[in-house]
Specification:
The complex is a heterodimer. Chain A is α/β, with parallel strands linked by helices. Chain A is built from eleven helices and twelve strands. The chains are: A alpha/beta, B alpha/beta. Chains A and B meet through β2, α2, α4, α10 and α11 of A and α1, β7, α9, α11 and α12 of B.
Chain lengths: 335, 634
Amino acid sequence: MNESLPKLTLKDFASDQEVRWCPGCGDFAILKTIQKLMPLLDSPKENQVFISGIGCSSRFPYYMNTYGFHTIHGRAPPVATGVKLANPELDVWVVTGDGDGFSIGGNHMLHVLRRNVDLQILLFNNEIYGLTKGQYSPTSQLGTRSPSSPEGSIDLPLSPCEVALGSGGTFIARSIDTEAKHLSKVTMRGYEHKGAAFIEILQNCPIYNDGIFEQVKNKKISADFKVELEHGKPIVFGKEGEKAIHLNRETLTLEVVATGNADKEVLLHDENNKIQAHMLATMTGPDLPIAVGVIYRQDKSSFVDDSHQLLIKSRQTKGSLKELLHSGHTWEVKG
Amino acid sequence: MELAEEKLGEHHLDQKEVVDVVVRFAGDSGDGMQLVGANFTDSTALYGNDLSTFPDFPAEIRAPIGATFGVSAFQIYFGAEDVTTAGDALDVLVAMNPAALVTNIASLVEGGLVIVDRGAFTSKNLSKAKYQTNPLEDNSLDGFRVLDIDISKHVLAAVEAFDLGHKAALRCKNMWTLGLVMWLFDRDRKPTIENIKAKFSKKPDIANANVAALNAGHAYGETAELPTGIHVYKVPKANVAPGTYRNMTGANALAWGLVAGSELADIDLLFASYPITPASNILHELANRKEFRVNTFQAEDEIAAVCAAIGASFAGSLGITSSSGPGIALKSEGISLAIATELPLVVINTQRGGPSTGLPTKTEQSDLMMALYGRHGDTPMPVISASTPVDCFEVAIEAIRLAIKYMTPVMLLSDGYLANASEPWKIPDVESLTPFPVQHHKDTEGFKPSLRDKETLARVWAKPGTPGLEHRIGGIERSFETGDISYDPDNHQAMTDLRHAKVAGIANDIPLQQVCLGNESGRLAVVGWGSTFGAIHQAVKRARLEGLDVSHIQVRYISPLPRNLGELLSNFEAILVPEMNTGQFIKLLRSEYLLDAEGVNKVSGQPFKIGEILAAIHEEFVQLESNVSREETS
C-alpha cells in the first residue's frame, strides 16, 4: 500500500445513492467487499473507474463513490478499453453479469481477454437474467425453468472460466459472493496482475435462482463441494483436508482420492499450467468439487502498455501540422 | 427524363489547343490503373491545370483476369478553367483489354480517342467481354479515333535489358501507356520517375524497368507514325490563386482535418474503427500519424469501436469513430448513449450504395435520414456534410469544435466519391486556423455531473483522475438538477427538451447560409448537400452562361440548418434538390419550411453528371415559363 495516499475507509467509497438490489441479493456482499478493498489499493480514489453494462450487477458503479459509467448492454469491455487507452494511469474495473458478459457481450469479452487489456473484470454469475425478470441465461443449467423456458431450458450452458481461458485470458479466478476474505484476496491478486484479470463470482439471486450455489456457499457442507486453489500447494479439500485431486495420467482426467494414499499422487496447483487450469476450471459436481481461487495466471504483454509504448516511440519527434500539410508533392502557383 | 448531352466534349480533339479534357484509364483490377491515374494526376497538377479525379474500382480485389466486373478505372478531368467534377463524357479512353473497352466505350464522345492494347484482344479476352467479333476489326469503333498498339510487344522490348521474366516485364505495361498519354498532353515525366524510384527503392531493377517502359511509351508518341488527328494537345494552364498546392483525396483531407482539430482543441484523439469499405482509408492514414495526438484502435466490431470512442471521451480524450452505412447502423445504440450522457464524439459516415452490403465501392447519399433520425428514443444530434474532397479538412475540424463545445456526438457525412476523389488543394496557413482549446473541469466547489454552461447548455466535462470530482454517469435518465438516476416524469420532459434545445442552439454558432453561385433571390435555386457540389456548380455555371436566372446553394449544416435558410429559399420561385438518393434532404426542407421543391434523384452508385443536372434545370425553366404563360392567359 502506498503510504503517501490519504487513509480512507469503506465509507469513503460508498456513494450517496440508495442501493436498489432485492433484499438478500448476493450483490450487496460483493459491493461491501469491493468498497472495503478500495482503501488498500496502491492508487488514489480518483483513479478508480468502474464501467458496467446492463443488468442487476451493472448498477454497481452507481453505488461506488469513484468515477463510474453505466453503459449499454454487453459493451462495458470496449468502453473500458477506450477509457484505459485514453488514460493508462487509471485503474479500470468492469462489472458485468452472465447475460451481459457472455450473451449479448460475448464477442467483446472474447476480445478484451485475448488483447489482454489491463482491466479487472468482475463477472457476477447468478446463472439467470434478474433485471428482466428471470429468463434463463447462457450459464443456466440445462433444464432451468423460467418464464421463457417453461418446460426447462434446452440450451447447453457455457462455463465462464473455460471460455475466458480459451479466449487467451491471462488471469482467471473464481470466488463466491459471500466469501468476503477469499473474494478480497483473489480480487487483490487480479488488481496486481498486469493485463486482463477475469474473476467469476458465483452470486446468489434470491428471487429467480435461489440456492443454485448452495453446495459451495453453505458452510455446513461446502468443504465437500469446493476446493480452494493455492499456487504450489496440493489440491486438497474436505472438512479435515481428507480429500484430494489426483491426475489420472492414463485417462487424462481428474479424480477425487483420499489424501495419504501413496499410490495416488496429489496434484499440486500450478497457476501457470494452462492445460491443468482447463481441467480445474471444468471441475463440477457431483463427482468433482468446484475450484475457487486463482485458476490460471500468466505474464503476457498488455495491450494498453504496448499501445502506449508505440505512442511514446512515435512522438519522440512531435508531429508538425505545417510539415504534414506540406509533405509529399506540392507545387507553387505564383501570382 | 432526357439528359442533356455534354456539349463541350464533341470533336474536342480537333484542335491543337483544348480548354479541358476528360481521360479515363481502364483495365483489369491488377493492371495498375489507379497507379497510372495517380501519377498522371501529379504531373497534371504540376503542369498547372485545374483538375478533379474519380477512381472507380470494383469490390473484388483480384477479379478473374479479363472479366467485365473486374474492370478498374481512374478518371481525370483537367482544364484551363475551374474544374469541380471528374467530368461527364470522355475525350480519351485508355482500355487495356476488351472488358475495359466494352464497359467504358459508351462514355466516349463521338470523335474521341481510344487507346487499346491490341495484344490483349485475344479470342479468350474477347469472349470474356462477350464480344462476338473483335471491335478492332469490325468497324464498330469507326466513330472514334483509335490508336491500337500492341503494347505488350513494345513493353517486352523496352524492358528486355532488365531480364525480369515475361510476367514481371508485362507488368510494366501500365507505365508504357502512361508514358504515351503523358506525351499526348505534354506532361513532365520527372515526378513519375521519382515516384517509381521511391516505390521500388528496394528493387532497383523493377524501378528501372518501369522508368524504361514509361520513357518508351513517351518515345513511341514522339516517333511513331500516328493516324491523322492524333498529336500533342496543349491544355492551357488554369488561372488559379497563388499559393502552395498539393493533391488531396477526401479520406486524407478528413484524416488530416481530425489531426488539425486535435491540435486546435489541444486534446488527444482516440480513433476507434472497424475496417469497412470505403471508410478504412481514414483509419489507415491516422494509424500512420501517431506523431500527432492521435491513437488508433482497430476494434473487434463496429459496436466496440463506437463504445471505445465513448470510453475515451469519458476519460477526457476525444473519441472518434468512423464507418460506412451498415457499420453506422450497428453503432446507433452507442451514439444514443453518448447523447444521453452528453459526451463529445465524432461519428464519420463515408456513405456507400445500400441497402445492406449494397455497392461497397460505389457512392450514394442515402444515409441522411439515418444520420438525422436513425436512433432509438428522441435523440437529436448535429449533422454536417462535406461537399468536396478538400472540404473534408474543414468539416472535420468543425465536427470536433461542435462536439467539444456542446458535449454532443456529431455526425459527419462524407461518401465514397469524396473519400476516393482527389483535387488540388491550396494548403491553408496553419497559423490562420482558430484554436478552441478544451478546458476540463477541475473546480471541486459545488461540483455535480449535471452542471452545464448556461449559453451552450453543454454539460460539464470532468475527467477521471481529477481529485474530488468522482461522479457517475449512465444511460438511465439523469436528474436535471443532480445528474443522479431519475424516473421523474417532469424531469424526463425537461431533459428531452434540453437535448433538443442544445442541438437547436447550435444554429446560432454556425455561419449563415451563403449562395455559392448566383443571386440571393430569383427564379430557381439548386440546393444541394455533400458531394453533389461539383456537378451542381458546373451545371449552374453553364445555365447562367445561357442566361438563366439560377443560383446554387450548397448546405453544409444539415442539423441544425442555418437559421437564414428558410428565408433565403423563400426568395426563389422554384427550388431544385439534386441528391444521390430517392429524396431525403428534400423531405427535410419540405417539413422544416413547408416549401415546394422538385427533386433530381440518382441512385446508380455513380456521381451526378453535369449534363444531368443541367437538363433538370432546363426542364424546370420550361415549367416556370409555362406557368408564366398560363398566368398571362388566365
